[in-house]
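Show me any protein, keeping tokens residue-aligned.
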Amino acid sequence: MLLAIPAEGAVSIPAVLLVLAAILAGAKLFGELAEKIGQPAVLGELIAGVILGPSILGFVDPSLPIIHILAEIGVVILLFQIGLETDVRKLLSVGGTAFMVAVVGVALPFALGYLIGNALGFGHLETLVVAAALTATSVGITARVLSDLGRLDDVESRVVLGAAVIDDIVGLVILAVVAKLVAGGELTPVGVSITTLTAFGFVAVALLVGRFTVPPVFGMLRSVSSEQTLAMMGLVTAFLIAVLADSVGSAMIIGAFTAGLIFAPSEHAHPIELGVVRLGHFFVPIFFVWVGASVDVRSFAEPRVLLVGALLIAAAIIGKVAAGYAPWWFKGRKLVIGIGMVPRGEVGLIFAQTGLTAGVLTVGDFSALTMMVIVTTFIAPPLLKRLLGPGTKPSPKGDDADRPGSLVSEA
């Protein structure tokens, strides 16, 4: 039975604490179990949400406003953290190869998703959300697997991580466009162009302004305060930039990601990241459990959900693997690149949850999308391990920023 928390009026603090205790305990337990079998913790957190949600144990009601708010804060923190771990300069070092993989890795899955949506009779907005969800690639999951294998220095790894970061940026722009349409915007070439230019323009202007303002301001702040204060002010900056992005017609998660990109090349990135990671241990699992709780496992027994899920899984895998073969001039292991691009992870879940929250996706179609995210995230790590084998582990005393190809540092 769902724990009773008033949706309006007075909030029962003990009931809220019970729900949070269930969420955090479940996320930690299942996250560690997932890691013990060689899978990313996010899968365990997602499964914890499914088990705790209305369709099984009923401990967590995803419709509760307070849980929704905490989950949205978790998304903002997650995107800020991903931005902090992204080195744009090293992204440029893999140049055209990564760019080609990224472009095909977005365009082909999107086209396949759009065709599937039309063939199954989805509404126009529903088709766009489903197609957009297929474009994602999880930088965090792929980077973690490559790091664990000691393969971050491989040229294939640099291409995968570079393309995955580009995918994230392009995917977030697509999400901003889709979110605007969901909110009632018109699907016109002019409207889409304005939203796209707004998103890219915001990132470009924010990075330019941040390059000149962050070093002196945070340098002065660091000289008169502790690292804890520095981390908190970094998070404050991320929140403000997220709100600014929303106010100019972009998306909050683009603002949060951009804030991370601003701080990433600075000397202040490390203390800020430490503080953000600690805070993320509380908020980010709430998001993944919330997403899992929104899944109705009973819908997995419906033939339509299984059909949609199977088609999306096929499109998700084919689209990304084909992208690995797109740069015809590249002489390395293209299958490694393609498999490395497959996991959708947290980014795919953000797309799916956006569609469900806006009322564009049905519960069944959301469950099918979640099935796609789970399968693509589950199969990529063991396939990469099989294809690559063990490499040379980086020295723990080394500087992450000096490692070739280290686009995403170990948290």
Remarks:
- The chain is about 70% helix and 0% strand.
- Residues 189-224 form the longest helix (36 residues).
- Residues 393-411 have pLDDT under 50 and may be disordered.
- The CA atoms of residues 228 and 253 lie 24 Å apart.
